[in-house]
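Renewal narrative, Specific Aim 1. Our central claim is that a sequence can be written position by position from structural information alone. The example that follows is taken directly from our test logs and has not been curated for this report. It begins with the structure tokens describing the chain, in the order in which they were read.
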């Protein structure tokens, strides 16, 4: 079982990874054999795919900020709610949406399973309907 201090450290590193664009931190908090279950998209396999995913988010929303709240940590898991705010400046290939220049705010949930001090598995879902409404792709 992973202790609370380790889980808190990983949560801080994930925040820095995303909000400070410190992609190298994935090497510290993520297992090489990581699997990310992306609800509605293909799974991610390994650190390299996780890093590439983060880079694609930064291309779609170059000025994005992520808020992680609330976060639960215990029994080898870190989970919680996130909210992304940013400007849509890059194509969203999985949704077939070209850049709109619109400001957006949407959210999602995550569960990270930790073993031996590293994230080994993640479940991730985002509110795609809210994002598509804000981009004018579907009616409100």
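The sequence written for that structure reads:
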């Amino acid at each position: 079982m992973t202790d609370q201090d380790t889980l808190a450290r990983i949560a801080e590193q994930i925040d820095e990874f995303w909000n400070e664009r410190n992609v190298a931190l994935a090497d510290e908090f993520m297992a090489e054999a990581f699997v990310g279950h992306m609800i509605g998209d293909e799974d991610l396999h390994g650190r390299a795919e996780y890093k590439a995913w983060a880079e694609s988010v930064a291309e779609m929303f170059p000025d994005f900020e992520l808020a992680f709240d609330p976060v639960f940590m215990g029994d080898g898991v870190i989970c919680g709610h996130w909210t992304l705010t940013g400007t849509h400046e890059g194509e969203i290939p999985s949704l077939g949406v070209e850049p709109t220049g619109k400001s957006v705010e949407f959210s999602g949930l995550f569960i990270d399973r930790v073993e031996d001090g590293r994230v080994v598995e993640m479940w991730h879902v985002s509110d795609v309907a809210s994002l598509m409404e804000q981009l004018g792709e579907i009616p409100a």
